[in-house]
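Reading a protein record of the kind used here takes only a little practice. The integers have meaning only within a learned vocabulary of local backbone shapes. With that in mind, consider the following protein and its fold in token form:
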Amino acid sequence: KKMGIIEENREKLIKFIGPPLVESFQKYYNFEMDEVLEAIKAYREYFADKGIFDNQIFPGIPELLASLKDKGHRLGVATSKPTIYSEMILEHFNIDEYFDIVVGSNLDGTRVAKNEIIAVALQGLGIDNPDKVVMIGDRKHDIIGAKAHNIDSIGVLFGYGTKEELEEAGATYTVDSVVSLAELLGVKIE
């Protein structure tokens, strides 16, 4: 609202979930860079105050994370969301204990490209063999970022992206449920 954006249909805002905010404001509202920076500032003020915990964990995800950890897998988060907010969200939903590393964008607008975020996560985990890694995501940026590092990817259709978006981006696999994801990863969830 601060930027003159009045979106009556909140469903149209789903396109903002996943990509870096700079890209979204430029693409969908044709903002110049000074407007983009002002819009991001306004968004982050709202997000830090009211929006940060306005989300949900998909049913079965905590059990999936626990099963993967029990099998000895190392888990990381690579997100376009700023690291500080991501860590707060994971803690709020009591799933932070499952992750060995959380890497997101920086508040100063740097490290926003998914391939760069993934590179930092891989380095932080000490992983140099992409054959031992899989990226799980619901938007094309997750899949494109994985491909940049020769990492297999699983596009989840229970998130915000569409099957077409994920397949066009080159997802190695797609799954339509948490149960299907668990099966593909070789673990069982109750």
